[in-house]
Amino acid sequence: MTLKSSIATLTGKSSYFILSTFFNGGSSYPGKIAHKIDPDILGSLGKNYELIVVTGTNGKTLTTSLINKMLTQKYEDVLTNPTGSNMVQGIVTSFLTHHKKSKKPLAVLEVDEANVEIICRYIKPKYFVLTNIFRDQMDRYGEIYTTYQKILNGIKLAPEATIIANGDAAIFSSKDLPNKVIYYGFSDQGFEDVDIKAPTNTDGVLCPKCNHILHYHKISYANLGSYFCPNCGFKRHELDYQVTDIETLLPNKTKFSIDDNQFTMNIGGKYNIYNALAAYAVASELGITNEHIKKAFSYDEKVFGRQETINVDGKDVNIILVKNPVGLNQVIETILSDKSDYSLAFLLNANYADGIDTSWIWDANFEDFDYDKLPLVITGGKRVKDVTFRFKIAGLDMNKNIETTEIEDFVKALPKVPTDKIYVLATYTAMMSLRKVLSEKGFINKK
Question: Which of 139, 195, 357, 368 is catalytic?
Answer without folding.
Answer: 357
